[in-house]
Amino acid sequence: MTKQPINVLGIETSCDETAAAVVDSNYNIISNIIFSQQKLHAPYFGVVPELASRTHYEKIQYVVKKALTKISIKKINLISYTEQPGLKGALLIGKTVAKTLGYLYSIPTIGVNHLWGHIHSVILSYRGKIKFPFVSLIISGGHTELSIVESYTERKVLGQTRDDAVGESFDKIAKLLSFSIKKESKQRKNAKLLSLLKKFTYPGGPVVEKLAKYGDPKAINFPRPYMLDSWDFSFSGIKTAVLYYLNSQKRIQPELVYNICASFQESIIDTLVTKITYAAEKFNCRRIVISGGVSANQYLRKRFMQIAKQKLLEVYFPKKNLFTDNAAMISCAGYHFFTDKC
Ligand code: KG4
Ligand code: ZN
User: For 327, which of 84, 216, 304, 318 is 20 to 30 Å away at the CA?
Assistant: First the structure.
């Protein structure tokens, strides 16, 4: 990193967070503004693309202006925006704003990959101190990816999900449970079930984690899709197993819901811990970097920290405000890709 810092304005609009941030090349976060659209999408239990694009359009000016209150646009040396993957209409808003500002103020712009952004959320959290190579696991609502990261800008992708992403499967289980509780509470007027139903919202990951705390992770033996002959993942089978289990039950009680959440979470986390530690051994890589929204899960963090202690591995997670989608990670990734090209 340079002594004379380069200030990077980051813009993120790939999904349901409208975000802008300024990060300098010494890993100082000058601003990190996130407008979360989650409440808007909650009634639909998922992101509605058109609603997301319209809301980015309405909020982008506000977040960019707010990110630039502590530092003037005249001091910005680079503008980095999420180029892909993501919702097309949503991405277009961020790119248009980045390019327009770049043109008006003669600032270079760079488009970065959102997944690189998640990896850089951890690099930024540890101020560039994590050594290469490391095993990277990205677990978000849209992606599950295992790779070996060789430098700030080079990674070898080993595997991805063949169906649902980890976050997506948490969200779908929450949706499934809420429908079952709704049906049951209509049939039998049960106050406990009705108050439990109120806890279900979008995204479902944090809800499942909260309810899992009251349940027994060993209560139901859901499958563990280790697939150790490939580096890919597959989570749709666990989802189907939960559906069949729910359908086989005569009554839905809160205790059953808690046990399903705990057992489902256990099965996902067992799969991830086994596969990632196996990759670390196979590639002789002691460092593991875990990013994406699901990395906020405290139980997952605990399980990875335990295995790290046993196997003498180092595990790194993003710091607060950097695990779900944000623009600070896009600034950091943009800085490295830009300086790599120069
Ligand atoms: O990285 P992110 O903010 O957006 C994408 O790039 O997709 O990830 C959002 C995902 C959602 O699926 C959400 O349910 C999940 O992260 N998530 C969690 C937790 N917090 C967020 N999943 C499990 N446990 C959590 N505590
Ligand atoms: Zn993301």
Answer: 304
